[in-house]
């Protein structure tokens, strides 16, 4: 498309910006407008997806017919079928008369379904039928009705992910996606951000008869480095705040920083300049990371110990070994567990904590598992002068497990 024609369209619909992605989106919209195909507009919330359906309708053979824009996410699930496809009198409580619904009212015209990814699955099936053959049945009716409506849809939902999660019909996606148009995010539009700021500032100045706010060169760079998670909608809001609340009409980076959110997770500036005396959370993060790594190690150790314990229990159940005929214990097999007896129920998970201890070989010969566990507890308490907490730490077990063992062996007196 010629540059002059594109600029004419931008002036007509008050579209500001010259980035290549925006120009491409407008070019595709104008090319598809005369051709009666379904269009799916993809883009983040707040990028201005609602402009393109109007451009498509006004440049199509349907431009003299009705145009409706419906936000599918704003209609309650219980009434959305009635809103879209109409209903007959008495079909539900409050249905005091017949209703055409949007598909009936927009016959011969264009229907813009914003946030189409929010439609319930049952409504998606009805929509697919309308797109395929123009047929639909109003709520509570028995007769099939026909309509000739061009559908332009838009969504900020990842449709492919929604399909894989069973939240969106794949066949409906392909039917809506005959032509796809991608609207760029504001952070990818470069100097368009400054142009939009200038437009919004001028609109505020004219509407409320105030001096227009202007940006310094440094403030412009700061504006273009920001991530803009709310896109154009957020930029307009911040411009309006500056116009009303800022005493200075020349906006510097210091003034601008007071109006831009500093949430590091989603809205952080590309460059952060720290100042002396600012609180740092590095130490807190390191502590949390350390705790997480230790927890992961403990879980892995518990899994290994549970695997070894389960194998021993399976051997006992199968009769291949008995508690008395188990192979001689090595130092890596010793753990404070109860004697292996015929199993009545699964052992408590906490009994499977890894607790390794080395005893002299001449003492191991006459000890079974029960005696060994009791002996280990006694020696640990003796070395720690009866301090149970220190004894538990030495054995590598929790205080709760230690107390249970003491009670089991009669050492809690």
Spans of at least 5 consecutive residues whose pLDDT stays below 50 are: 264-281, 324-369
Strand segment count:
9
Rounded mean pLDDT score: 82
User: How far apart lie the N and C ends?
Assistant: 92 Å
How large is the count of helical segments?
Answer: 17
- Label the structural class: alpha/beta
Major sheet size, sense and barrel closure: 5 strands, parallel
Shape: extended
Q: Which sequence of SSEs, written as H and E, runs from N to C?
A: HHEHEHHEHEEEHHEHEHHEHHHHHH
Radius of gyration: 35 Å
The share of residues in helices is 40-55%
Strand order of the largest sheet: 2-3-6-1-7
User: What percentage of the residues does DSSP assign to strands (E)?
Assistant: 5-15%
Write the layout of secondary structure elements.
Elements: H1 3-12, H2 20-32, E1 39-42, H3 51-58, E2 67-71, H4 80-85, H5 101-105, E3 110-114, H6 121-133, E4 135-136, E5 145-146, E6 150-155, H7 159-164, H8 170-176, E7 179-182, H9 192-208, E8 214-215, H10 217-225, H11 231-245, E9 250-251, H12 253-257, H13 282-318, H14 361-364, H15 369-383, H16 388-395, H17 399-408
Parallel strand pairs: 1-6, 1-7, 2-3, 3-6, 8-9
Antiparallel strand pairs: 4-5
Essential attributes:
single chain; 413 residues; alpha/beta; 5-stranded parallel β-sheet; 17 helices; 46% helix; extended
Architecture overview:
The chain is an alpha/beta fold and 413 residues long. Helix content is 46%, strand content 8%. The protein is built from 17 helices and nine strands. It has helices spanning 3-12, 20-32, 51-58, 80-85, 101-105, 121-133, 159-164, 170-176, 192-208, 217-225, 231-245, 253-257, 282-318, 361-364, 369-383, 388-395, 399-408, and strands at residues 39-42, 67-71, 110-114, 135-136, 145-146, 150-155, 179-182, 214-215, 250-251. The longest helix has 37 residues, at 282-318. The protein starts with a helix and ends in a 5-residue tail after the last helix. The relative contact order is 0.08.
